[in-house]
Structure formats: C-alpha cells, structure tokens
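Researcher: Good morning. I'm working through a list of sequences from a screen, and I'd like to move beyond sequence-only analysis. For each chain I'm collecting a predicted structure so we can compare shapes side by side. This is the next one on the list. No need for commentary yet; just the structure.
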Amino acid sequence: MSSVVQSTIKNRLLKALGPDAFARFAPHLELVDLPIKHVLVEADQPTMDVCFLERGLGSMVATSSDNETAEVGHIGREGMTGEHIVMGSDETPNRTFMQVEGAGYLMPASALLDILNRDGATRLLFLRYVHCCALQLSHTALANARYNVYERLARWLLMVHDRIDDDDLPLTHEFLSIMLGVRRSGVTDQIHMLEGVHAIKATRGNIRVLDREKLREIASGCYGVAEREYERLVGVPISANRRE
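Model: Good morning. Structure tokens for this chain:
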C-alpha cells in the first residue's frame, strides 16, 4: 500500500488534518474505485474499513423491521463512511452504498481507532465531524416534520449538489422517492414544479441544476444550518467545489 500526499487529497476531512496527523493516516490509505451500488457499510455486520470519499456520493439508508426504507444521510468528499466507528460501535443497523460512482480512500477501522486513541486533537476533529452528521440527520427530521415535499426536494438537491463535481446530478426518480419518503409519482410532480421555475432541468436519470440560488430560496430554512456548522467545526466549507 503506497503512501499518499496530502496536497493531492480532495477529501475535506483528510485535508483538515494537521501535517503530522495526516502522516499517521497516509500509510493506511488505499485508493479504490467505487462503482454505483457498491456497499461501503453493510447493516448489522462488523465494519472492517472506513472510506474517505474523493468523488461520488454515498447514501446512508435506514430500514425498519417491516422493510420500510428511507435515506437518512449523504456522504461525499466532505467526510467518511462508518462514523459509528468513531463513537465506539463496530456495526450499525444502517446501510451505506454508492448512489453515484466515484473513488475513495479505504482505511482499516482498527488503524483509525488506534490513531484516535493516541491523538487527542485528531479525535476531537472526528468527533466534531460526527456531530455534524448528527446535525444533518436532525435537520432532515425537522424538514420532514415542518416543510413540504417541494421544499424538501430543493434541500436534498442542494445537498447532493454540494457533493458532486458539476451541475449534473445522476439521480433517478426512484432514488429521490427514497430520499424524500414519498411515492415516485409525487416526486415527479415536484420535479415538474422545480422545472417550472427554471431551477432545474430533468432528463432520464439526471437532474441538472440551473439556478442554485433559486433552490436555496425554495428550501428556505431547511437548508444551511448543518452546512454552516460543518464549516465552523471542521474549518473548511462543505461544498468546496462551489466556493473555490
């Protein structure tokens, strides 16, 4: 496994590490391709590796005991899969898989835990990241309770846009229905509404963002708090490709 250079890394969490801390990570990082539907975290099984995404989009899905599913989080190059490892749990009921193909750095969970146990500053950074993940989840619950499907769809599209390199989001209506917890036909209606105000252009298997500010206006207060907290605590904007 060859060592990697921090200046070549796109992952925002790895870039936030100090040079000495990154030097402890580097020997354990292995760059791998991540095809669509590739499972990064399997539900109710020991998580052997964490993954720091360089590109692409991971989707974390919760499943009930009667097989109802809903997406509860996105993971892009702002973070890592397997954040439960940081909290001392070796497995989780949630499943994480690639929704948009990409690449990332695998790291053995045991190596990550060893570094966190030895390095208090790095452990604090990763705990702050886990806090940001929890905040994202809490604001998803807030959006589901207080905002309509139109506003929630705008929020999810902004969150995906934050994590994808360009304005084309390779998302199907079926996946969007899982994201929002609504019927596919309801998603189609809301997409047509967003097209009507020229915020997006939808084609088969793809949504192109035409007007990000219009999406922010529509999403209103259900987007932005978790993103600002990430920037405050991690020290870099969550959507680096939008600001750099």
